[in-house]
Write a structure and sequence with these properties.
- The chain is an alpha/beta fold.
- It has one domain: Rossmann fold (3-Layer(aba) Sandwich).
- It has helices spanning 21-34, 50-58, 67-91, 102-111, 116-126, 140-150, 157-177, 191-213, and strands spanning 9-15, 39-43, 95-99, 132-137, 182-186.
- It has a five-stranded parallel sheet, with helices on both faces.
- It is globular, with a radius of gyration of 17 Å.
- It starts with 8 loop residues before the first strand and ends with a helix.
- Bound molecules: thymidine-5'-diphosphate (TYD).
- Residues 17, 22, 44-45, 74, 99-100, 104-105, 108-109 line the site of thymidine-5'-diphosphate.
Amino acid sequence: MSDASNSGLFICFEGIDGSGKTTQARLVVERLCSLGYDAVYTTEPTRWSEPGKKLRESFFAPTRLPIEDEFRLFLEDRILHVKSEVIPLLNAGKIVVTDRYYFSSVAYQGARGLDWQYILHENEKIAIVPNLVIFLDLPVSVALDRIASKRMEGVNTFEKEESLRKVKGIYLLLAERFPRLISKLDATKEISEIQKSVLRLIIQLWKNNSKVDN
Ligand code: TYD
C-alpha cells in the first residue's frame, strides 16, 4: 500500500450511521472552496461503478448479500474509486474529501463477522493510505435517535443497535491502532463547532504538507 500523493491531500470521513459525516464532509468541501482551496467531495460506495451500484441496490433489498460477496463488491468498488477519482484528483493537487473509505469495510464487514484484521490486510493491498481520517464519534443511542427521527422507519432497532455497537467497537480499535492517522472528534457537538475543528485540522495539514514540498 502506498501513501497518498504529496501534491494533494487525501482526507476521509468515517463514523457510524447517523454520526453526521456526510454533512461535515460536504460542508468542509464548500468551506475550503470558498476560502480558495481546491477541494472535491467523493463517496463510497461510488454512485457510478457497477459494484457501487450493486451495493446501493442491495441496501434496499429484503435480504443482505452474503458477507463474502458484499466484502468483494466493496473492494472492487474501492479499486475503481481510487484509480478513477482519488489518484487523478490528488495528482492534480486537490484536496480529496472522501465520505467513507476502507475503515468502513473493516468496521461494517467486520461487524458482520469477517475477521477485521483480514479485511484491513486485503484493503491495504489495494488502497492508498489517506493523509488523515476524521472519525466522528457518537454514542450508539444518540445515533439511533437521529436515525429514527430522520428515516429508516420499520428498521429492527434491536438488530440495528447490536450491529452499530459492533461497528463502533471496531472503529475504536482502529483509532487505537492508528492514533496518528485517525483523529477522533466528538460528534455530539453542534454542527458548526465540529466543522471548525474539521477545517482547522485540514488547513493545518495542508500547511504542513506545503512546507514539506517546498
Ligand atoms: P452511508 O455513508 O451511510 O451512505 P449514504 O449516506 O449515502 O446513505 O453508507 C452506506 C452504507 O454502506 C453504510 O451503512 C455503511 C456501508 N459500508 C460498508 O458496509 N462497507 C464499506 O466499505 C463502505 C464504504 C460502506
